[in-house]
Prior knowledge:
Blueprint: E1 2-4, H1 16-32, E2 38-44, E3 50-58, E4 64-69, E5 74-77, E6 88-91, E7 96-101, E8 112-115, E9 120-125, E10 142-144, H2 148-155, H3 159-165, E11 170-172, E12 187-192, E13 198-204, E14 207-212, E15 217-218, H4 224-230, E16 244-247, E17 250-253, H5 270-283, H6 290-302, E18 312-315, E19 318-321, E20 323-331, E21 336-341, E22 349-352, H7 353-359, E23 363-366, H8 378-385
Parallel strand pairs: 1-14, 10-11
Antiparallel strand pairs: 2-3, 2-15, 3-20, 4-7, 4-23, 5-6, 7-8, 8-9, 9-12, 12-13, 13-14, 16-17, 18-19, 20-21, 21-22
Amino acid sequence: MKHSANDGLEMRIFPLIHFRRFIVSVCLILITYSSFACTAINLTAKDGTVIAGRTMEWAFDMKWELVALPKGTAIDLVAPAALDLPDIELSSNYAFVAVAPAILKGPPAFLEGQNEAGLGMSGNFLPGVTEYQKVTANDKHYVSILNFGRLVLGRFGSVKELRTELPKYKVWFDPNKVKALPTPPWLHFVFTDRSGESIVVEFVKGEMVIHDNSANVLTNAPTYDWHLLNVRNYLSLSNEGRSSVKVNGTNVTEIGQGGGLLGLPADYTPPSRFVRATYLRHFATQPEGSADGTQLMAHLLNNVDIPVGVAKSRAGKQTVSDYTQWVAIKDLTNNQLRIANYANRTNFIQIDLNRVFKSNKSMTWAINDLPYPSNDLTSKLIEETGDIGQ
């Protein structure tokens, strides 16, 4: 297991041929898997409230479900069958709510969620570089990537705990266990707790790698450390534009606000979304508390929201369009969740998870079938003001 604290983001000098190979490999990753995009952002309000938001993009209908599981839920950990290692039977220390794709056969494989201790999780697609760990006959702790989210949300309450406990586990993957998914679950994860501490967990070259989430942003490929190096190409960006410049004695004035962000990438590739989210989060005015923190998160996520039709790619003879299937905003401090699907992007529903956790019930809701609010207040406004023409 490797730790990365982004130690000064040291610059390394590679032979030119190695650099070219690296750039080619990155381009191939982005081209081959351009139709799977997700963005996660964290922020902390002035009163200490921690908000974690994310978009979930996919080019196929994944039949997403929101699942609530109470404290004491069974967590069964297994090793690859060929090793004949014993199953490990645990139970959850915390109630949690999480999201899983219903098209995957078998128990839910959670990619998003939060627990009653205030630990939040977002799993994003990381193709091209993800290589899970190999379990050996001598290992005592192991978990399939399909059960990884359940283990973390059910058993652990803080990032500090994860730093100590996660390296004890071997996280593995068997392609034969994945049925109906359009692609293997090549994933990396961001974990954030209500203290604001956050880490990114990746699986590279058969090892677990833990990064400090210093940017408070996660997208997709390449790996997290690459993105941190890439944002250094945009240090000239500013939230203040120049109002005027003297040119040959003539005062040339700006034609509008926002010129300091000229050069901010606007496309939907993972590197561009990472840069855009990082700088917009950095420049945005820090919110006072939960309410305006949630609104700020929604505004930030709007900048990486993908409409159907604008990010197309070819899958064989089929043309597919990546799009934002749902958005989740987690208030980790107050155990609140807001979620909206594509058809109701401007109408978040809010769920008080304190009440859900207290109910001690197992519950499942299809995200597309949640009772999204209707905001047509025409009749109410007319009744309150009388004749609308007056």
